[in-house]
Write a structure and sequence with these properties.
By secondary structure, the protein is an alpha/beta fold. 18% of the residues lie in helices and 29% in strands. The protein is globular, with a radius of gyration of 18 Å.
């Protein structure tokens, strides 16, 4: 039998953290699965940061990095969300959770399937509801953001960041070459056009406009060229330590999907 009320969330980035918060606040047991080198850029609101620090806290959610599933129960008993490095989801078969939520936002399916749990939900493009998952959640900003899809797929990835404050492509900075990233400012800094944000092998990337450094990838990672590494928000009054409106919307949609599908299974 599946473990009652155990929800596995694949991914610990900022949007996945919005999902984790909703399930955590609903009193469900959550386990976050991450990669050994997370590349979330909005690190101040990403549970994945526990991989590097051993622990983290986003708003009211304490998170601890556990070495194996044997540490999960103690973590839950302490009121924290456990995070396990298991990018392939190898623990899922033995744990037999009630639900698996794929919140990696890879834009394609990295291996999540309906065989993993009675309830499976995929966020964004790459999933087809009724085939590889039970439900898909729309992640494209706009009228349908957070919509629950029970047949079919989310809108395809455009490769263009959503527009914020009149800025779209320019607000996301990428690595110009392969190499080791060095931070030249910090999340929360206000920068002006031309301010150095990070460098890769001596190649400096600067801010394209005045704004707030909302995201900046982990210091010292070796990254391929073209990796999303920083996010400049033209709105300078954003609180970089709180979960975003989009993450809260997707979290609420994932929780809706869980209870909707749970009720459908019981009928």
């Amino acid at each position: 039998m599946p473990q009652q009320n155990l929800v596995l969330i694949r991914g610990g980035g900022d949007l996945a953290t919005g999902v984790a918060q909703k399930f955590y606040r609903a009193g469900l047991r959550v386990l976050v699965l991450e990669s050994p080198r997370p590349t979330a850029i909005r690190r101040t609101v990403a549970l994945s940061q526990a991989v590097y620090n051993g622990h983290t806290q986003v708003e009211d959610i304490p998170c601890r990095h556990i070495a194996s599933v044997s540490g999960m129960d103690a973590c839950h008993a302490a009121g924290a969300v456990p995070l396990l490095v298991d990018p392939d989801g190898n623990c899922i078969q033995n744990l037999r959770p009630t639900a698996v939520i794929d919140a990696i936002l890879a834009k394609y399916n990295v291996g999540t399937g309906r065989h993993m749990a009675p309830i499976t939900v995929g966020l964004g493009p790459g999933f087809t509801a009724g085939q590889d998952v039970d439900a898909v959640i729309e992640t494209m900003r706009g009228h349908n953001l957070g919509r629950l899809i029970l047949r079919g797929s989310a809108l395809p990835n455009t490769g263009i960041p959503g527009e914020i404050g009149g800025q779209s492509r320019q607000r996301v900075l990428h690595t110009p070459v392969q190499g080791v990233l060095q931070q030249l400012c910090q999340i929360g800094d206000i920068v002006t056009e031309g301010t150095p944000v990070f460098s890769v092998n001596g190649n400096v990337v600067t801010a394209p406009f005045t704004g707030l450094v909302r995201g900046l990838i982990q210091q010292g990672l070796t990254l391929p060229a073209g990796t999303k590494a920083a996010d400049i928000d033209p709105r300078t009054n954003i609180d970089v330590n709180t979960i975003s409106d989009k993450a809260r919307c997707l979290g609420g949609a994932a929780l809706e999907a869980y209870y909707f599908l749970l009720r459908r299974h019981s009928q």
